[in-house]
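ESCALATION

Customer reports they have been waiting on this structure for their group meeting. Please prioritize. Original submission:
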Amino acid sequence: MSQPSFDFDLDDGGEPTYSVGELADAVNGALRRQFGDGVWVRGEIQGYSEKNGHAYFKLVESGGDRRAVLDVSFFANVRMRLRPLLQRHRLNLAEGMKVRVFGVLDYYAANGRLSLKMGGIDPRYTLGEMAMERDEVIRRLVASGLYDANRRHTVAVMPLRIGLVTSVNSAAWHDFMKQLQDSGHGFGVRVIDVRVQGDHAEDMVTAAIRTLGRRTDVDVVVVIRGGGSRTDLAMFDSESIATAIATAGVPVFTGLGHEIDRSIADEVAHTAFKTPTACAVALIGSVQSFSNRAETAWQMIAGDAIRQVDASDAGLLQTARRIEQRTIGAVERAGQRLADRAHRISLSSVRVLHHGESGLARSAERLGRRPGQNLDQQQRIIDQLEARVRLLDPVHTLARGWSLSRTADGRIVRCVADLAPGDTVVTTVADGRVTSVVSATDPNHPSTGTDADPEGTS
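Update from on-call: job pushed to the front of the queue and completed.
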């Protein structure tokens, strides 16, 4: 089948019709005529990437409802040419940086996109923007009372327990740890490994400082990193990092490796040092200073103790000598007194013995004269006692007419209640015994005897 043909009578009004390539050339020609050899553009870097020595990013402007984006190509040869300028101002292009760049606008027909071929940069603009943002953060920190909050903390006299925020195995890490290990002091380090530049670095450093700043087993939090460009340091101008430092519960030391610049983190920290090594040396110095003071105090205490012991020894020796002298004198005096007393006792004993012998002789003489008298007197006393004993003998009582009644089992009858009708009674009289049986008892019948016998006689 053949392609049908159509005959259109088109009237283009004299306007030219471009091919896509021709239109791209026309656009580029118009751009060169409009902007000459190039144009300055300012904005914030986003989507920064590098490939084969070239760098690519977007310049973004955001404000209110307006958002504008321009692709930028930063080719390797231009990067080499601009490197001394960037190094002189210690700048590295990075995500989020605000820049003012010069370049040539180019409409690339292959992808239909307009881009800027970067050929120059104004470092003063970037540094000025950074300074303005930095000043605004400091103003807010001062207004909220956080600017000098961390400096109100007192550093421990022996800051041996360290909370460390850094990139583990970096040069800063090794320098810091080598200083502590070589010091010979017993430092304990709790480290949180973070990124100190690039994506997520700000969030990681902020979270690490907050975590260590809340611990009760940390004397000081240390934030360190190695040297770098001014834009690398710019991360530590972050308000979130500054707030974490200001609100930490312990002193925060910084050693960010910048000999010239001072970040906001340095401004709000308790103490800022130029390098990680200087930070470690300061901590070692604090511990060594306390150790020296403690050693000096110990030596003073030991010296004073030795002097007091020596003085006490001398005093004790003097006291011992005085006691010895007094003891010898006392013993000598006591010995003399003892000898005197022994002599007096000896003399007195002789007199006592003579007196005793005389008295003994007289007593013996008197005793020899009176033995008969004493025996007669004692015999009369014995005779009187014998007569009294005889008077108390029951036999004599029975002989006077009294009797002694007992029950059949031998119990003495003392009252009427001891007997009952029918009981057998054995009555002892002077010349024998009478056995009888009780027929009746009468407790009210009066006794016919004239004497009362306590032993139950009747």
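Sent to customer with the following note: The chain has three domains: 20-121, 132-289, 391-458.
Escalation resolved.
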